[in-house]
Amino acid sequence: MKILAVIVGADSTATCLNAAVLGAQCVGECTIEALNVVVDPAHLVAASDEVDMQRLRERWEGTASERSAACHTAFLAWNAGAAQDVPSVTWRTVVGDEEAVVTEEAKNADLLVVIAHERNMDGGDALHAALFGTQKPVLIVPISWKPRAGQRFSHIAVGLSDSSAARRAVEAATPWLKGATDVTAIRIGDVDDPALKLESLLDDAGIANRLRMVPRSHGNLGHQLLTEAHQAGADMLVTGTYRHNQLIEWFAGGTTRHLLACADIPLLMIH
């Protein structure tokens, strides 16, 4: 299995790598590659306004090569301080468009790890490409998240919903769910909800789980789902993206948008 950790900023490099390592430790045999896309406007094949925007950002973020060098320095610092039992991580840089490179490199990966809330253009582009352009499971890590000493992804919550994306998320997350000590299946809704059929996917995969069935009590489903995951003591939340198309979710809000904006634990999602 290959885990692709997409590095989009020096400040979030350690967070991204820590999450990738925990993901690898959860399933066993894994390789981890840290991918940094060098978005250099001199080599960018894009609309002129996109190129101009990339040149403009150099004024406050530095050049593409300077940003990449800062990320690599952060990677070396993290690597030097990593424990001996941490899986090795290789570093790779690719010059190109962030979304295009992430989409292409994802073809050879089993899991992508990306940062949420990174305050630069690359972070938003990487997250959008990973979630909506790859059809691969994506571990989305809040930039403020820090693992506790000795933490593993030992307790994973699964959000059950009556969508094909939720089914794909459960199926894609199976290796991590099998590696967890505890799995809590959360369903917010009625007792006769068809989404409860997804619990059989866990049973069929041999994944012991506890069902947490609660009525809808908040106007935003994402808010309540995160609250239930916290109350269950989960280290990670597995969920599909919800029913709206990507433009509606990305620009107009909704459950997926709220999860991405407000989660303070890693989310394993697939569109």
From TrEMBL:
Q: Which CDD domains match?
A: USP-like (cd00293)
Question: Which Gene3D superfamilies does the record match to this protein?
Answer: 3.40.50.12370
Protein name, as recorded: Universal stress protein
